[in-house]
Fold this sequence. Notes:
two-stranded antiparallel ribbon; Phosphorylase Kinase, domain 1; alpha+beta; globular
Amino acid sequence: MSSLVGTPNSxxxxxxxxxxxxxxxxxPRDRKxxxxxxxxxxxxxxxxxxxxxxxxxxxxRFLPEVIAxxxxxxxxxxxxEDLTEAHWPPPWSTSQIDLCFGVLEDIARTPPPPTLASAAxxxxxAGYWPSIAQEPAVVVGLGVVTADWLALTIDALIELSGxxxxxxxxxxxxxxxxxxxxxxxxxxxxxxxxAAVGNPILDVVGWLPxxxxxxxxxxxxxxxxxxxxxxxxxxxxxxxATKPRDPQVRADIxxxxxxxxxxxxxxxxxxxxxxxxxxSPTMEQVIEQQTH
Length: 292
């Protein structure tokens, strides 16, 4: 560490977010810095993937400043500008939501590194609901949908998600949520290890459920016309919510994924009239009942 930035006067562990890497702030040479250190083979791979993106998109204002990177072949270390004093939502203001939409447009306009994988290769949105159909009890066991609801809607969900279009050539972050972005003198987006190229609407649809869970507007009030992507991501979130917890990741990750999946189902309910998972009628269904 001292060979990269000098000898730190202090180390302070940083918590928050869902990162499984070791996180610290240090203060060598009168400047506070942020350190991400690999603690496993997985986190080593994540840091290398992130650094390839940071190097390949060098200079973009939405990226954190890279101070140093050292890879000994086993446990790499990435040192970035310190952003712990920035505003990390929630809470969200209307202007911050607008700024986040703007930075997603900036990301999509930025030429991606040439070696970046495609989102379609990394993410099979068409595959989650068919898998759920094979073992419906696993998702029913989450307590957010009933077996009857799943039997009623599964064919529509499979058809919708099968039409989700991830194809494109734009840069995607693929993990937009509040613990991966902050507001300082600019909007800064961090944790780029899942970045890919593809359809930029994926970043928007992937972000809006968590925004809603954090007190923001309902996603169906902000974006319409992308039910296929919503259905695919709903299957993604609920499928991952059934997996065993990774001991290296924050304990509430599965609950968070479950809740995001439920928001996707509510989104489809409002947009397409698919029955709500909680059994309550949608506004479209209420109007239809009143006209008959």
